[in-house]
Amino acid sequence: MEKENDEVILLDYWPSMYGMRLRVALAEKEVKYEFKEEVVGGVKSPLLLKMNPIHKKIPVLIHNGKPICESLIAVEYIDEVWKDKSPLLPSDPYQRAQARFWADYIDKKLYAPGRKTWDAKGEEKEEGKKELIKSLKVLELEALGDRPYFGGESFGFVDIAFIGFYSWFYTFETFGNFSMEAECPKLVAWGTRCLQKESVSKSLPDPYKIYEIILTYRKHFGLE
Amino acid sequence: MAENDVKLLGSWPSTFVMRPRIALNIKSVDYDFLEEQIASKGELLLKSNPVYKKIPVLIHYGKPICESLIIVQYIDEYWSSGPSIFPSDPCDRAIARFWACYIDDKWFPLLRRLVVAQGDDAIKAALYPVVEGLVLLEDAFKNCSKGNKFFGGDKIGYVDIALGCFLGWMSVTEKMNNIKLLDEAKIPRLYKWAGDFCADSAVKDVMPETDKLAEAAKALLPKIRADASS
């Protein structure tokens, strides 16, 4: 239960798909928090280095001075601490295992190839694009199916794990030169459905702004 | 068939397979251990784990659960009346998850590189980061154990299982390459912990003897090397 003097800080960077997980989870639980921006690629702040000395990465959730690192671990923590509102993980152990499996799949199979669509050139970029589309199709078919959410009838852990990637769809498809709608229409429909939730719409940045920042990055590194 | 209809697809030399075996032992759950052949993937494995096609897979009342750490969490949550594998405090649980994640994502790839290394130069280059990681884990042990025998306190917990499963292969690698991983001078706490872990009743029957594992390693290493380079 939230106490009056609960201090919740989120060290995050606005385009981060991992940071978005925590923003959405905290919003689902209606937890007030302070957003402390850490620019990725800039000088790492003393606070980040103190709170995440092992990985030195955002997001970091700081609850009453104690850091929780790794986004999926922090989402489970949020679910356990603020357990009276909007459960994120199902209560059945088998369903929980399935949710953890797909969240882990998202982490293992999507980030690296997704990145190649905008950070690589030539054959490496093409391979990244193929792998991304292949993994997204598995997710669409096996994890989502014909259900409204990955969690089934209600928004849950896997939806939170994936929703940040949705805001990067425009970036992936534009630089990767493919259509997300054509390849994975159900994932696109799912994203649109999730955006109707306030916890999601107020936590996700405008996809075009992500595209713009990546465009700047590409120009800087001579990829354009 | 075991009373609870619990099957575990795996193989005895596999580190990741050891994790659910230890967890099931902690909970005193009987299970059928279905040994997979190394060279070929059986039909049940391909059907139960179509995404990764890898062991371990726990099959409980016909339903498959994949990924060793996810299986361990499932075991802890399903058989919740047995001794707990996770701490109860959410902050301690997050810390346990963090270190298990570090072990799998950061440290294990370094260990694997050492296990497959050939030639003195390659072995020496691969050894240093593994030991560096163990020094970090020694510090983690100090904080998690709070003066007790295990990461989990006075009994084996999640991080013990996550790390301890590698002790057999670490021992084989030490002997094969004449190197030291568990150096008592460098990491005294983990050195002691390794002995306590292997002696624990939940572990001793599933931790392979070094000689038997060394023999199996000779046949397994070519395949591990091939997988590592692909």
SSE diagram, text form:
The complex is a heterodimer of chains A (224) and B (230).
Chain A: E1 8-12, H1 17-28, E2 34-37, H2 46-51, E3 60-63, E4 66-69, H3 71-81, H4 93-109, H5 111-119, H6 122-144, H7 157-166, H8 169-176, H9 180-183, H10 185-195, H11 198-201, H12 207-220
Parallel strand pairs in A: 1-2
Antiparallel strand pairs in A: 1-3, 3-4
Chain B: E1 6-10, H1 15-26, E2 32-35, H2 43-48, E3 57-60, E4 63-66, H3 68-78, H4 90-116, H5 120-145, H6 158-164, H7 167-177, H8 188-199, H9 210-229
Parallel strand pairs in B: 1-2
Antiparallel strand pairs in B: 1-3, 3-4
Structural write-up:
The complex is a heterodimer of chains A (224) and B (230). With 224 residues, chain A is of the alpha+beta class. Helices cover 58% and strands 8% of the residues of chain A. Chain A is built from twelve helices and four strands; from the N terminus they run E-H-E-H-E-E-H-H-H-H-H-H-H-H-H-H. Chain A has helices spanning 17-28, 46-51, 71-81, 93-109, 111-119, 122-144, 157-166, 169-176, 180-183, 185-195, 198-201, 207-220, and strands at residues 8-12, 34-37, 60-63, 66-69. In chain A, helix 5 (111-119) crosses helix 8 (169-176) and helix 8 crosses helix 12. Chain A is globular. The mean pLDDT of chain A is 96. Chain B is α+β, with helices and mostly antiparallel strands and 230 residues long. Chain B has helices spanning 15-26, 43-48, 68-78, 90-116, 120-145, 158-164, 167-177, 188-199, 210-229; strands at 6-10, 32-35, 57-60, 63-66. Chain B has a four-stranded mixed sheet with strand order 2-1-3-4, with helices on one face. The radius of gyration of chain B is 17 Å and the shape is globular. The termini of chain B are far apart. In chain B, 40% of the residues are buried. The chains are: A alpha+beta (224), B alpha+beta (230). At the A-B interface, strand 4, helix 3 and helix 4 of A face strand 4, helix 3 and helix 4 of B.
